[in-house]
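User: My advisor, Dr. K., asked me to get a structural model of this assembly before our group meeting. I'm new to this, so sorry if the format is off. These are the inputs:
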Amino acid sequence: MMRFIRSAFVIARRDFSATVLSKTFIFFLLAPLFPLVFGGVFGTISTRIASRNERPVIAVVWNQSDFDRLAKARQEMSDALGDDQVVKLAPFKPQADTDAQVRELLASRNVPVRAVMTGDLAHPHLTGSIAGDKGTAGQLRMLIDDARSAPAANTALQVTTVEASSGSLSTDRAVTAQIAQTLLFVLSILLSGMLLSQLIEEKSNKIIEVIAAAIPIDAMFVGKLFAMLAASVTGLVVWISAGALMIQMIKHGGVATLPPPAVGWPMFLALTIAYFGMNYLLLGAAFLTIGAQASTAREVQTLSMPVTFGQMLLLLFASTAIGAPDSTEGIAAAVFPLSSPLAMLARAAERAELWPHLLALLWQALWVAIILRVGAQLFRKTVLKSGPRRPWWKLGRA
Amino acid sequence: MLRQASSGNLAVEAVDLVKDFNETRAVDGVSLAVPTGSIFGLLGPNGAGKTTTLRMLLGIIDPSSGTRLVLGRDRPLEAAQEIGYLPEERGLYPAMHARDAIAFMGALRGLPIAEGRRRADALLSEHGLGEWSKKSIRTLSKGMAQTVQLLGTIIHKPRLIVLDEPFSGLDAINQARLEELIRREARAGVTVIFSTHVIAHAERLCERIAIIAKGKVAFDGRVDEARSRLRPIVRLRTRSSEGPWQAAIPANARREGDEYVFELPEGGPEPLLKALIDGGAGIETLAIERPGLHDAFVAIAGNKAAAEMAKEKPE
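Assistant: The format is fine. Below is the predicted structure of the whole assembly, which you can bring to the meeting.
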């Protein structure tokens, strides 16, 4: 066993040095910045475009006092739901020929009018292309009802604010779970390409023969996997530190304002690292096994797409655990080895018990060992062309 | 069972090794016995099964059937720390420094990396590559890179060295250096097995050889035993062109220019000489040559295998 560990360490040290000490590792560290930069750039562009485009409005052809009451009702709804969520209103003075005014407004190019409301507060009438748009008519009905009510009739609501309630916590924790899952997914996407091509160097350099003659193939697989894990943890530490620093600088109140996970922040961060490790090892072992079958960079590229789709399916499956970790789907996602880390991380955000995590980590570790074992045997069998023809259930001897 | 049957003075013992790749049988019942401290040559044309046999002996691949015992272990990887291996297809990490590449190969065989670097520096200096120690492999010439890999093969002071076509790609000077290195290791008690398709190397270096053709061992024994399978060759040039002395020349003698070339008759040189002198041959030159390994190879493996080897790139 000691020799196995020492052999794996020799491979891991070589790979880790070759990865971390290379110039390209700087790009690896900068990788998460790219989506942020792109997000910022495209966000600004889309905001500009949105601001340039005038949004469709409801032209209200009422007398001023009726319109003011409607506008007041709209303001109250806007305060509750957000301005973007409530229909826009534009006042127009009634003209003698109402039908002509309606036609003119609907054809207006200066203001994009979706519909025209005529009559008055007591007898409103809506004309416009709103077939299938029940929201606009519905909102207008609510606004009109509100505008018709006397101010005294409005229910006074006294508000006492507490820090958290079960409702707000479950929502916040679901957000935390989703952010954590997405982060883990993005990291594994970043690493999958690197893992797929891990053995190409050895195979193209022919050094695989020297290694295979000196140490067990399993040890080489384990060494390569842990080298990449160490390199990615290095990256993770840099990214988390940089991210926390950014949040601290940008968000008022810093990281303390983020939605709190059920197990608490310290345990959640520890579990994030543990599940990142397991997610990496599980997917890594699988990718290493798949990539080991490839002989050239071209074959690795060909394999990348199905592997990425596979990862997206895993994310979708694991996301069923968000909000319902004890549901059948949530438990299935936690039990299925390749989605287990993602599903369990979501659980950590939403449920406080710790024992399922211990169980899950052991379960995931078992599967890492199984996949690595099968991967090494497959490599010996298909790449090194080793061994007699044995059925797969007898593949045990290294 | 093989472990018990094995003699203590054998570094490698293989019995009936068979290797099938799908429907192709690459090695067909190879048995070998390599004495400890000897230089053992594996001869045969390309595709004969030499590399596959070596890979099975090293545990890189498992045989389809048969058994092997390497340095007393039936799982060769368990003895990996005492074995050095230079594969036919050479490979190093191009970005590694020469000393690190050697130390890495030592580390794979259990040598601590710091000790490996120290030994690597010494070995590189000894082989005239001291100034290249901290240069990356990609900056070395092909010959230098091969030397680096060879040094990586012996850095951990193995008891058994396996070299697959080690002379391939080396110039004459480096071939001579390699021959000397092999002899020096053998003098130190190290067992050296190497495969080659160049008979001259085996003839100069080996005490024992195995000739492999079409996956089977056609001969396994001492080099002089291989040669002794053939009778000595007589080369005769006479002043007389005709006479009763011609009765002493075997019927299957051939003419090479002015010379008669034939196997020495079973009676030996004395009756032949007497018959030639008495018959008035007027002997101008008479040479009795010991057959070379090439002749033995032709006799053992057949003309076709010899022709295939002759077609391969000469080193």
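One thing worth pointing out at the meeting: Residues 388-398 of chain A have pLDDT under 50 and may be disordered.

User: Perfect, thanks a lot.
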